[in-house]
Amino acid sequence: MDFSAEKQIVYGLQQGDLTKFRMLFEDNFEGLYRFVLRRVGNHRLAEEITRMTFLDAIGQARNTPSDISFAVWLYSLAKPRIWNHISDNPEEGSRGRDQWNGKLTKVQEKTISDAEKVFGKLSLEEREILRLKFIEQAADGDVMMILGQEDETIGSKIYRVLKRAHFLMFGEETDPQGGYFSELSVFFEKLKDLEIDTLEGTEAFKINLGLDVEAKSKLKSEAVEAEFASEEKPKKTKMSENINLNVGSSDPAKIFVKAVEELREEEDERLAEEALRFERKERMLDLLDRFKVVLVLVPLLIFVLLLSWVLYVIFGPGGSLLERGVLVNCDVEVRGEMSDGERVALSRNFGQRFCEKFEVDSLLVVRNSEDEFSVDVELATGDSLDYELVFREGGWKIRDYRAVAVN
Questions:
Q1: What is the pLDDT of residues 359-381, one digit of tens each?
Q2: Is residue 215 situated within a structural domain?
Q3: Which of 28, 308, 316, 356 has CB atoms 3.0–4.6 Å from 326's, for a disulfide?
C-alpha cells in the first residue's frame, strides 16, 4: 500500500473511523503471519497470535501511531504474546519446526544448523534484534518501537549484538573497520531463502479472520459514533440510565465491553474444543495402550486357528481324496476316450494313492464321463475295492465306495 494512503487510513483510525481497516488487514496479513511464524515455529500458534494481534489493533485503533508504519505497530502488538510463549517454551525460541523446507542440500542444512547454534547462545532480545535487522529489515527506530527501548541506547545495543553474533558465526573480525553488518546480511539472506511458503494452507484462515476483522471494526466504529453522539445529548437522569440498561444502550463503553466479551467467549469456546479433542485423543491412546496385548494376540490367534483348520481339511481324516492308502508301484489300466497326457496323469493321480497300505494285483480306471471315473482295485488278499469318483470344486471327491471281502 502507498505510504500516503496508509497514513490517511491511520488518521481515520485515530478519529474512530475503522471502515477501511480491512484494507490494512489485507496489506499486512502476510507480513505479520511470517513475522510470528519465524519466532514460534508453529502454524497453529502463529494463526492464534496473528488473530489476536489484529483484534488488539482494532481495540487500540485510536492509539495507532502515525510516525511508524502500520506493520511495525502490528509487530509491537504481537511481540508480548510471542515472548510469553517463548519464555514458557525456551526450546522453541531458537528453532522453528514448521518454517524450513523439507528437502535441503548439505550446505543448506549447515546454514540452518549454524543459525540455530548461534541463536541458542543469544538472549531472546538479541535474537529479536537480529531477526528485525536482517529478516524484517527494520530501521533502528522500528527496532526501538517494537522492543520498547530508549532512543539513545538502541544504536549501541544493536552494534553490540551484531558484533557478538558475527564473532559466534565467523570468529574474530580481521577488518579493523568492522564488516559485521555486510557478512551477517549475506548469511541471513541465505537463511531467509530457505523458508517455505508460510501462506500455503492458510487461505481459509485468512478469509475467516478477514470477515471477523471486518465485523469487529464495524462494531468498534459504531461504538465511537455512539460516543460522539452521546456527547451532544443532554445528560440522562439516573432513572433513564437504569432503563437503558434493561432496554439496550448506545453507550460506547457498553458496546465495546460487549464486543470484548464476545471475543473472549469465542476464544474460550475454541480452547474448550481443543481441550476436549486432546482429552479424547488421550483416552483413546490410553485405551490402546491398555489393550495392546489383546489387540495383537487376538488377530494372531485367529490366524493360527484358520491355518489349523485349513491344514486339517487338507491333511486330516477325510481331507485326502482317497483315505485307504497310496500305491507307489502299481500297473494301472486306464480305459475310456482320452489323450495320452490324460492317461499318464490318471495313472499317476489314481495309481499312486493305493501303494502305502495295500498289495494290489490290478487297478482299473474307467472314464465314465467328462468328470466321473470308476476305480476298481483288486488286492492280493482277494478283496476288491470299488470307488465312484466325481470332479467337484477343483478336486476329486468320492461319490460311492464298496468293499467286497474274500469268500
A1: 777 888 888 887 788 888 888 77
A2: no
A3: 356
